[in-house]
Specification:
The structure holds two protein chains of two kinds. Chain A contains 14 helices and one strand; from the N terminus they run ααααβαααααααααα. Chain A is an all-alpha fold. By secondary structure, chain B is mainly alpha-helical. The chains are: A mainly alpha, B mainly alpha.
């Protein structure tokens, strides 16, 4: 143990405190929470979790979120792969402007788009479907996926492409069997980021759904306000939203630092 | 060297189509609203640039914009140096590296309204961990629903908790890319820690720090869900940031014209400041 490792330890403790409190709260009864302060659950209960796993209006929130996040991740990465290849290998008319324009979509406040999105997706009759949320999240996830993949592709020497073409590979075969596998870390990282930003976004997901495709995060806000102060239930639902993120992050742990740098280190 | 190839456009067409569908149509809707007045029933009147003038002159807009700049300023001057300091003190290799990275990234993977709700529970004066500790152990009177200063400290702390790891991970990615030979050379030259930081580590982190500052600027300037859930803009209007005010006007009062004009001004400011940051930070590379 070096002396300087105290800084990351203190920082991680600071990060874990609110999470600990959320998890501890989820194992308390509403009575215990409101009756006063206790550092650990005194009357340990799984009732809050039982409510969530037995009530369809709760657990369908999770299923809905996972469905639209998965659709979004697949679409975003699939269309971003060829585009990132074009940006990393070729010069074409308007390429820089196009790349910049894609990035500007990350700068638009989601609040600006809430109402027009509602009207647009109602007009094309996709309102309250998983596809609507998945497509809407493409607004910020596709530019991000292009950015990350382009960074990783820049690290692959051009000789790889040229050798493959000399060896008689067709472009689609080269792309699918040689090129994409050579940047699979980048694909994993891009998929992780699409998952992450689609999972944490709520404003658009809430605006575009009513019942059938309602995300878990929206279910939480509604039930918490109508049932008064059911803090235990709210904490249990919140705890469960952390788990999918924690699982996917474990798969990309060795690439995560490079991934956050959009592949360009 | 890249080759010139106009057929590359076919590769970007799907991306272009999907993003344009999501970006251009809603943007045109906003532009459309911003120059018209409506009293419902889909009847619209041409209004010209009146809404823009009204927004730009309104005290309410100036106040929200001022709060927004203050918030973003605090976020940048706290999170960027703190993130660099933490990245510098992290181990470079070994078992603990992935563990640290995963734990640090965890806050960023929590849905934004859950972040708000979590901090709400955490800071409740008598039954939250932080609220109880401040009020009953340290004896500092703390209630963010009453005291604007406490509310500000809370939303800034929440954002530091939520996003400092982004700066840490980016700076760390820059640091691990520095070859050991650089440090050995510095040691032979008898360089001080400060000199190593200033002339080796900082230049190597420059690209990633540019990304970090840009992302933190854009995201903190557009922040909505977390402070909305935590404080709802209060007490009073003390934490009503720009996007919270915008949603109040658009969906609360249903004043579509002014809200649309405000959206466009808001977007223009974000673009302008991002462009300024980007130009300033990459100026040396161009020369």
């Amino acid at each position: 143990m070096q002396k300087r490792s105290i800084v990351p330890i203190v920082y991680i403790l600071f990060l874990m405190l609110p999470i600990y409190w959320l998890v501890a709260m989820s194992f308390k009864t509403t009575n215990e929470i409101l009756s006063g302060f206790s550092l650990f659950p005194q009357t340990f209960t799984l009732e809050n979790y039982a409510t969530i796993f037995t009530d369809p209006s709760w657990y369908w929130g999770y299923i809905n979120s996972i469905i639209y996040v998965t659709i979004n991740t697949v679409i975003s990465v699939a269309v971003a792969l060829p585009a990132a290849y074009a940006f990393s290998r070729y010069r074409f008319l308007g390429d820089k402007q196009l790349f910049f324009w894609l990035l500007t979509n990350r700068m638009a406040p989601a609040a600006v788009f809430a109402l027009p999105f509602f009207q647009l997706y109602s007009a094309v009759e996709l309102f309250d479907t998983h596809l609507a949320v998945a497509l809407a999240h493409c607004l910020f996830n596709i530019p991000l996926a292009v950015w990350i993949l382009e960074g990783f592709m820049g690290g692959v020497p051009k000789e790889l492409d040229e050798t493959a073409f000399v060896d008689g590979y067709s472009f689609p075969r080269f792309f699918a069997t040689i090129f994409v596998p050579s940047i699979k870390a980048g694909v994993g990282v891009a998929a992780f980021f699409c998952f992450m930003f689609s999972w944490v976004e709520l404003l658009l997901a809430k605006t575009l759904t009513a019942v059938a495709a309602k995300p878990i995060a929206a279910t939480m806000t509604k039930t918490a306000s109508s049932a008064g102060y059911e803090l235990g239930l709210l904490a249990a639902a919140g705890t469960l939203t952390i788990i999918p993120g924690a699982i996917v992050i474990w798969f990309v742990r060795n690439y995560i630092a490079k991934g956050f740098a959009m592949g360009r280190v | 060297m890249k080759t010139e190839n106009q057929k590359a456009w076919f590769f970007v067409l799907p991306v272009l189509a999907l993003v344009a569908f999501n970006a251009l149509i809603p943007m045109m809707t906003v532009v459309n609203y911003s120059v018209q007045e409506t009293f419902g029933d889909n009847v619209f009147f041409w209004q010209g640039l009146d809404w823009f003038q009204q927004i730009l002159r309104s005290d309410r807009f100036h106040a929200a914009l001022g709060r927004q700049f203050l918030f973003t300023f605090l976020i940048l001057i706290i999170e960027v140096p703190l993130g660099i300091a933490i990245a510098l003190s992290m181990p470079r290799k070994g078992f603990w590296v992935p563990v640290c990275l995963v734990l640090m990234a965890l806050p960023m993977l929590i849905p934004w309204n859950v972040v708000g709700a979590m901090w709400n529970i955490f800071t409740l004066p008598d039954i939250g961990l932080l609220g109880y500790f401040l009020n009953h152990v340290l004896g500092i009177s703390y209630d963010m629903t009453q005291d604007p200063v406490a509310a500000w400290v809370t939303i800034v702390t929440m954002d530091v908790w939520h996003w400092t790891s982004l700066v840490v991970l980016l700076a760390y990615a820059g640091l691990v890319s520095i070859p050991d030979a650089y440090y050995q050379a510095a040691k032979i030259d008898g360089a001080t820690n400060w000199a190593v930081f200033r002339f080796i580590q900082l230049p190597k982190m420059k690209t990633v720090l540019t990304i970090a500052i840009l992302l933190r600027f854009m995201d903190s300037f557009n922040i909505y869900t977390e402070p909305f859930v935590l404080t709802g803009g209060g007490p009073g209007n003390s934490t009503t940031l720009l996007s919270i005010d915008l949603v109040k006007i658009a969906l609360g009062q249903f004043d579509l014209g002014p809200a649309a004009a405000m959206s466009l001004i808001y977007f223009a400011i974000t673009l302008l400041v991002s462009w300024l940051f980007y130009t300033l930070m990459t100026k040396d590379d161009l020369n």
